[in-house]
Design goal:
This protein has helices spanning 18-23, 25-38, 42-48, 51-54, 57-74, 90-97, 103-123, 136-145, 167-179, 200-211, 234-243, 251-260, 274-282, and strands at 2-6, 83-86, 127-132, 150-157, 160-165, 184-187, 222-223, 230-231, 265-268, 287-290. It contains 13 helices and 10 strands. The two termini are 20 Å apart. The chain is α/β, with parallel strands linked by helices.
């Protein structure tokens, strides 16, 4: 069985999508439609902008979404996943790829998500840190024992867990985790405490947009970040998507569940190779590849 997986924030790079635009008339039309929907020329920033230009949240999230979704749609009949999953932002790409959302609906929600997250970051300072080389239970117990907001945010692969929260508690957690034997506990250059309770204002703003959007029955199951289980019921998909902003990304658990359910090939659809690397760290026997036209 084929599992299509979609990357999240951090996978962007200068020039992203330009080759796709040049190779495929379907891609070209979709990129032009995206410029129209967003109200600015995102293609110009994607194809010609610097790494710094692409780091702006209102650009980063739509850019990664567009690269992923347009790649999937440009593949036509060659794109036949039996299951899909996306890492954080990638979940929106996955929902367009399996036809739960239309391209326009997905892009509008991603733009609103980026706006909501940026506002939450501006109003409340927060950060994230990568913790390497410790058991999840140790990291979780350290977070639980600290006063202030600090939670497990991204279960990326065994021995790699990202924590998220207020700045001082994150720094304190990093000190304690190093004492507990973490190989690294490194504060990340991010603008906010994603997948933590500090994203509550963003969750409320995005929830309002999601509730107004019609979701179709998906062509195949999506393994959602919040539960790590296969979901096809549209009400459950909506509920999980809303909860995602303040809940952890259970990527390790999602991949393990997909393997248990028969996934043999994991095909990363979109920029970069981050997810292929994580899948290999979760299970060395898994087949991984990148989607191509």
């Amino acid at each position: 069985m084929n599992a299509s997986i979609f990357p999240g924030q951090g996978a962007q790079f200068p020039g992203m999508g330009q080759e796709l635009y040049q190779q495929s008339s379907v891609a070209k039309a979709m990129f032009e439609e995206a410029n129209s929907i967003l109200g600015f020329e995102i293609t110009k920033i994607m194809f010609e902008g610097s790494a710094d230009d692409l780091k702006q949240t209102n650009v980063t999230q739509p850019a990664i979404f567009l690269h992923s979704v347009i790649m999937a749609k440009s593949m036509g009949d060659d794109f036949k996943p039996d299951m899909v999953a996306g890492h954080s932002l990638g979940e929106f790409s996955a929902l367009v790829a399996n036809n739960t959302l239309s391209f326009e609906q997905g892009l509008k929600l991603v733009a609103q998500r980026a706006d909501a997250m940026q506002k939450a970051c501006d109003s409340t300072e927060g950060t994230m840190a990568a913790v390497l080389g410790l058991e999840n239970t140790i990291v979780e117990s350290v977070c639980d024992a600290i006063d202030g907001v600090v939670v497990a945010a991204n279960y990326n692969c065994p021995g790699q867990l990202v924590i998220s929260g207020a700045i001082e508690p994150i720094h304190k957690a990093c000190e304690i985790l190093k004492e507990k034997g973490a190989r690294r506990a490194l504060v990340l250059p991010v603008g906010g405490a994603f997948h933590s309770p500090l994203m509550e204002p963003a969750r409320e703003q995005l929830a309002a947009a999601i509730e107004k959007t019609t979701f179709n029955t998906p062509d195949c199951p999506i393994y959602q970040n919040v539960t790590a289980n296969a979901v096809q019921n549209t009400l459950d998909i909506k509920k999980n998507l809303i909860a995602q902003l303040t809940s952890p990304v259970r990527w390790t658990q999602s991949v393990e569940q997909m393997l248990n359910d028969g996934a043999q090939n994991f095909i990363e659809v979109g920029p970069g190779k981050v997810l292929q690397g994580l899948v290999k760290k979760i299970n060395r026997e898994a087949n991984t590849s990148a989607a191509s036209l």
